[in-house]
């Protein structure tokens, strides 16, 4: 008895695979490699890098390309990896059935290797920019001639000085691991459009593990500085979604040696601006508009640990309490101080009852041992709030409003069950 005929698997397009290999070996570029991959996989493809920029497209029509970009139904997304690093993503829509797993793996591996090879000079430039900006703002390079020479090697002319913009990003929606690369790419793109030769990098510190984007602008004019900062804000708003952004920019540093000071000015302004992103997706603040916060610049620059200690000794317990119980102690304290210590004025601004304000201020006293009824208590709490802003710590918002919440006194872990 003869066995049933077995359905033969479709043979891969060996010619297309060979074309992929030839495109890589001949250095024909990513577009040709992706077109060959599309033929081998019998699929429409879009290749996207880590910063969400489109590197190559192989689609049958403009509508097909748009559906791939929108990640529409039937579109698959495959991460491109070299070792443990994600170098990009390949969006794929099969045309006549699922491609062979083996062929897909070969194609994605070849494309990832080509992306890695072509991106190597850019990554070297990124690393060089980050190394220079780190050395500059950590005062590891302080000689004027050295600063100008190292910047010139990277394409920036700082002989007439410059300024600094700092971008802090806070995601309110789930974000992938490459969100910092997208923010950096958008900020750098806008900065170089307005100030050619601008340098940008993501800089981290022990107190700021997520990092912030720092942009050094080789521009000697205030009007140009503000124009470029506004351009960065517009580009972030248009191209990076799911985040709020706080931008701060320094004054112009006429001498490159003063760029260290400009970096701290921009960071202070960005940290203070963080408080203003609660109602808007982007808040921008110039250092000269930070008011009394400017007085804390020396503390932030020279002894941030002491500033952190003062914050911990004053309003940190209120931030922790608000975060855990979803109360409004910090906001109430801020409003009370802004209202010159007037309970009725505070209640009117917060649209709540005077008894509620008094109750919250008693909780402030219980948690901090500082009494808003005393001059000393108000001064320390006010400085604690300023220290919180300068350190870039945003106060929690949003009380629990469920029935029986008792003014927000419901633990978050119980509320979310």
Structure description:
- The protein is an alpha+beta fold and 417 residues long.
- It has 3 domains: 14-120, GAF domain (Beta-Lactamase, 2-Layer Sandwich); 138-298, Alpha-Beta Plaits, CATH 3.30.70; 306-415, PucR C-terminal helix-turn-helix domain (Arc Repressor Mutant, subunit A).
- It has 16 helices and 9 strands.
- A 5-stranded mixed sheet has the order 6-7-5-8-9. It has a 4-stranded antiparallel sheet with strand order 2-1-4-3, sandwiched between helices.
- Strand 1 and strand 2 form a beta hairpin.
- Helix 2 (30-41) runs antiparallel to helix 4 (101-137), helix 6 packs antiparallel against helix 7 and helix 12 packs across helix 15 (375-390).
- The protein is globular.
- It holds the Pfam family GGDEF_2.
- It comes from Solirubrobacter ginsenosidimutans.
- This is Helix-turn-helix domain-containing protein.
- Residues 396-417 are annotated as: Disordered.
CATH topology of the largest domain: Alpha-Beta Plaits
Strand order in the largest sheet? 6-7-5-8-9
Q: Under the CATH scheme, which architecture of the largest domain would be assigned?
A: 2-Layer Sandwich
Mean pLDDT: 83
- N-to-C terminal Cα separation, in Å? 63 Å
**What's the order of the H and E elements?**
HHEEHEEHHEHEEHEHEHHHHHHHH
CATH class of the largest domain: Alpha Beta
Q: β content, as a range? A: 15-25%
The number of distinct structural domains comes to: 3
Overall number of strands = 9
Categorize the overall geometry. globular
Ranges where pLDDT stays below 50 over 5 or more residues in a row are: 1-11, 398-417
Q: CATH-wise, what's the superfamily of the largest domain?
A: Reverse transcriptase/Diguanylate cyclase domain
What's the Cα radius of gyration? 27 Å
What is the SS-derived class?
alpha+beta
Residues in helix, %: 40-55%
Number of DSSP helices? Answer: 16
Biggest sheet architecture: 5 strands, mixed
């Amino acid at each position: 008895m003869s066995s049933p005929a077995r359905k033969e698997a479709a043979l891969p397009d060996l010619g297309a695979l060979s074309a992929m290999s030839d495109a890589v070996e001949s250095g024909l570029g990513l577009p040709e490699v992706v077109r060959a991959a599309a033929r081998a996989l019998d699929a429409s493809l879009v290749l996207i890098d880590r910063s969400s920029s489109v590197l190559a497209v192989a689609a049958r029509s403009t509508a097909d390309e748009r559906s791939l970009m929108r990640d529409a139904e039937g579109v698959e997304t495959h991460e491109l990896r070299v070792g443990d690093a994600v170098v990009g993503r390949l969006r794929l829509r099969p045309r006549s059935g699922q491609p062979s797993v083996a062929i897909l793996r070969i194609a994605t591996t070849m494309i990832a290797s080509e992306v890695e090879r072509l991106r190597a000079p850019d990554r070297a430039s990124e690393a060089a920019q980050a190394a220079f900006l780190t050395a500059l703002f950590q005062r590891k390079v302080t000689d004027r001639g050295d600063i100008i020479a190292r910047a010139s090697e990277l394409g920036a002319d700082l002989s007439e000085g410059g300024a600094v913009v700092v971008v802090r990003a806070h995601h309110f929606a789930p974000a992938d691991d490459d969100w910092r690369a997208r923010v950096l790419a958008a900020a750098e793109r806008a900065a170089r459009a307005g100030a050619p030769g601008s340098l940008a990098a993501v800089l981290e510190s022990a107190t700021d593990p997520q990092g912030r984007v720092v942009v050094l602008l080789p521009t000697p004019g205030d009007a140009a500085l503000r124009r470029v900062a506004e351009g960065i804000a517009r580009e972030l708003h248009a191209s990076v979604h799911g985040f709020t952004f706080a931008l701060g920019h320094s004054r112009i540093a006429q001498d490159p040696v003063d760029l260290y000071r400009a970096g701290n000015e921009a960071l202070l302004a960005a940290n203070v601006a963080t408080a203003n992103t609660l109602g808007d997706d982007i808040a921008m603040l110039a250092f000269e508009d930070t008011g009394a916060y400017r007085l804390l610049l020396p503390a932030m620059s020279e002894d941030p640990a002491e500033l952190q200690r003062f914050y911990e000794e004053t309003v940190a317990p209120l931030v922790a309490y608000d975060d855990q119980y979803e109360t409004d102690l910090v906001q109430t304290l801020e409003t009370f101080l802004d209202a010159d210590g007037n309970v009725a004025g505070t209640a009117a601004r917060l649209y709540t009852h005077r008894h509620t304000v008094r109750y919250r201020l008693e909780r402030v006293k219980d948690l901090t041992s500082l009494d808003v009824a005393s001059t000393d208590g108000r001064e320390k709490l006010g400085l604690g709030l300023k220290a919180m802003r300068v350190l870039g710590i945003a106060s929690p918002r949003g009380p629990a409003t469920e029935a029986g919440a008792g003014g927000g006194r419901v633990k978050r872990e119980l509320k979310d069950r």
